[in-house]
Amino acid sequence: MQNSIEQLYQEMMEAIKAKSCQPNKTDLVESCFWIANNYWNSLKKNIDTTSFIQLSQEIDFFKNQKPKFTSQIQFYTILTEVLLFIPDETDLKLEFWKYEHGRFQNFCERNKAFIDYLVKGREEYDSTYFVQVGPDWIPYQQPAFYDADKNFMSSPDHLVRGYLAHQMYHQYVTQKLNELKTIES
For the segment 15-35, what is each residue's pLDDT rounded down to a tens digit? Predict the structure, then answer.
């Protein structure tokens, strides 16, 4: 199972990379969003979450494998929102990206305890956090449409994918800031 998930992930990343040459950023982001969403749906079709033989397989799926796919979807969702608000003037763009640069840190601060658990590689609560939710479980917040199937949900899914998506976004923003600083020089 692990190899097939990794292979599917690699295919998704190659498909996303192939789109990177699109000149229109909006089309690029939209295409990449749908690629990630389609690969996530493909993974769900090929996995039966009720058939995890060992608890360690279930934990690995929800802690490591699933977020690779859903964080890509969230990253491109964030980019879609941001592309609508980028100002045209260079000096305003710089201020805009400086403000956006703090988004990752804000996310980490709001979710400090869990992010620390995740980043430090702790495992003592994995069997509580990274197992499929029960049918009566009620989420703390409304799940994203691509992540609302309780058969493929653990309680901190939004935090794991959010951390990874915000980390990718932070790298994107850092690149944008560096490009603008080069233009100003």
Answer: 999 998 888 888 999 999 999
Residue tagged 């990718």 (tokens): 168
Query: Amino acid identity, residue 42?
Result: S
Smallest Cα–Cα separation from 70: which of 141, 5, 121?
5
Closest alpha carbon to 68 in 48, 47, 39, 45: 39
* Site of tokens 């658990």: 117
143, 153 in Cβ contact below 8 A? Answer: yes
Summarize the confidence of residues 7-12 as an average pLDDT.
Answer: 96
98: number of Cβ within 10 Å: 13
Whether residue 67 contacts residue 7, with contact meaning beta carbons closer than 8 Å, is answered with: no
CB 168 within 8 A of CB 75: yes
User: Hey, where are the domains in the chain?
Assistant: 2-184
Joined together, the tokens standing for residue 23 give: 């000149």
> Mind listing the pLDDT tens digit for each residue in 80-111?
999 999 998 888 999 999 999 999 999 999 99
